[in-house]
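I had to read the description of the data format several times before I understood it. For illustration, here is how one protein appears when written out as sequence plus structure tokens:
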Amino acid sequence: MTKNSPSSTDATWTGMVPVDDTALAVTDTGGPGVPVLYLNGQFATQGYWRRVVAELGTGWRHITYDERARGRKSGRSADYSFEAAVRDVDAVLAARGADRALVVGWSYGAFVAAHWVARNPERAVGAVLVDGAFPYDWLDEAMEQRIRKQFRRWGRFMPLLRPTGLTPRMDAGQMADSNIELGRVSRESELAPVLDAIGVPARYVVASGTSLGSRGDEQERIRTSLGAVTARNPHIEVSAKVGSNHGAVLKKDAPAIAAAVREVAALATLGDSGDSGTNLS
């Protein structure tokens, strides 16, 4: 990389990264540390990672961003598909001049991280998947109708919170469509081959209990699918099973997530030790 490339700056950069028909709000702390790219929950924002970033500290290069129509600044788009979310990873890394990155994804972001790492083994340092990317067939016709009903109900109140950035600038139908698409992406027949293809260190941090919209032990049953994943792929392990529920895991269990990031980075360094000239920045 040249001296003037974005990755070599020591100052924190915030700005907008154009992609397709929109632009994404991005924050990059810069510096020489391993680039860590954080991928948000489905309708969450980059601010959710604050405690994890603080736990890891200044020895890392932290890159966060708000997905399309999320947060206070990222623009609306005609495309809120899962594939667009995966493409946005490339757009952000390219704009910031990061050739390789360790990706950390929570919930929806864990699925995005898994897909990106499987497709880009030469660019992926590794992955930490936080309570997401479980291959499980939870979507059926009844669940689809339940999701649409739920978002119609929530849609009455979400516009009131949009100026704060706490809810996306998407309508109820768009949010429901995104959630239903995630159900299809989650299917064992769809996700298991993606996870099997991961050839770099990957660690799960698994929460406990419920998630928003789940009932009873639904979420715990979904999490049981990890056993088959780790049995098939030696690159993937569960780093920690924590006590927090799905919504609180980034806030309450930041130390466990940071520990998983350090573990993946250390394993990647060992793997790269035989490759002359390898540079994680």
About this structure: Residues 209 and 245 are 5 Å apart (CA to CA).
